[in-house]
Design brief:
mainly beta, SH3 type barrels, five-stranded antiparallel β-sheet, 1 helix, U2 snRNA binding, poly(U) RNA binding, RNA-binding, LSM_dom_sf
C-alpha cells in the first residue's frame, strides 16, 4: 500500500495543471483590423500576396480575416508577369480565403479601373 501511494504521488510530479493548455489563462479577444460587416452580402474584390485576384460576394468572416466568398471569379493574369491581366476569368464558386494571404480588399461598387499615369 505504501509503495502504491508513493507511485501515485510520483506520477503527477512535473505536471503543471495550471498551464495555458488547460485553459486557465485567458487572453483578450482580438477585434478584426477592419470592419467587414458593411460589405456582407456585397461584391468585393480581393488581392492576394503573389498576385492573384478574385471577385465574389462576402458571406462571412472572422477576427483572423479569413473570408467566405460565394460566386467567386478569378481574374487570371499573364503567366510571365502576374501584374499584367490576361483578360481571362475562371469561375470558382464558393471559396474560403485565409486571412494571412490577403493583400487588399475593396468593394466592387463605386470602383473603376483607370490607366496608370506613371507608365
Amino acid at each position: 500500500n505504501q509503495n502504491r501511494q508513493n507511485y501515485n504521488q510520483g506520477s503527477n510530479q512535473g505536471r503543471d495543471h495550471t498551464s495555458a493548455r488547460s485553459g486557465s489563462q485567458r487572453f483578450p479577444k482580438r477585434d478584426a483590423i477592419i470592419d467587414l460587416s458593411k460589405y456582407e452580402n456585397k461584391s468585393i474584390h480581393v488581392k492576394f500576396t503573389g498576385g492573384r485576384q478574385i471577385t465574389g460576394i462576402l458571406k462571412g468572416y472572422d477576427q483572423l480575416m479569413n473570408l467566405v466568398l460565394d460566386n467567386v471569379v478569378e481574374q487570371l493574369s499573364d503567366p510571365d508577369d502576374a501584374n499584367i491581366p490576361s483578360g481571362k476569368e475562371r469561375k470558382l464558386g464558393l471559396v474560403v480565403v485565409r486571412g494571412p494571404l490577403l493583400q487588399s480588399i475593396y468593394p466592387e461598387d463605386g470602383t473603376e479601373i483607370i490607366e496608370n499615369p506613371f507608365l
